[in-house]
Amino acid sequence: MRLRRCWRRWAPGGTGAVRELLSRSIAVALRAQAMGESMRLRSGLTEGLDVTLRLRKPAHAMELHDWMAQDVVPMHAALDEIWTRWDQDGVRLANDVVGKCMDLLGTSTASQPAKAESVSASGQWGNAGHPRCVMPSRQPSGN
Q1: SS3 state at 127
Q2: 128: which of 52, 75, 107, 136 is 20 to 30 A away, CA to CA?
Q3: Roughly how many angstroms between the first and final C-alpha of the chain, as a whole number?
Q4: What beta strand segments (E) does the chain contain?
């Protein structure tokens, strides 16, 4: 909602980049979900056996890259246009949309679930090296 108000105020007539950014970020999120689901379903002994017996084609990194680039490249092109035509608040909001989208992509394709216990409201850097993650502190044992 806030991004929509900003693009009306800062980019009259230049809202195509925002529409492209938002639509491509949703498409990247859907691709991330599909990729995460494929990773979950296509792992294990049966998948290895199917690939070995040539019943299923193995995943190829470059094909995966090309598939993701269909939406990531236009999303970044829209972000580039926003960077060159908008003010600081609009750029910050657009960067936030792309950052959240890339975080979602990383989370969807993580081989192990994240171990962050809570989200920091202050945005301080936690032990995880990410401003929104705060790792649980270890209490010294009472030896």
Answers
A1: coil
A2: 75
A3: 53
A4: 118-119, 133-134
In angstroms, how far is CA 100 from the centroid of its own chain? 5
DSSP reduced 3-state for 28: helix
pTM listed for this prediction: 0.64
* 50-83 confidence digits (pLDDT tens): 888 888 888 888 998 999 999 999 999 999 999 9
Q: What is the spatial distance between Cα 24 and Cα 18, in angstroms, rounded to a whole number?
A: 10
Query: Is the dihedral angle over the CA atoms 99, 133, 67, 25 positive or is it negative?
Result: negative
Question: Quick one: which of 24, 28, 138, 8 has its CA closest to 79?
Answer: 24
List C-alpha distances in Å: 100 to 33, 60, 115, 138: 14, 26, 18, 29
**Residue 135: burial class (beta carbons within 10 Å; 0-12, 13-18, 19+):** middle
Residue 130 is given by DSSP the state S
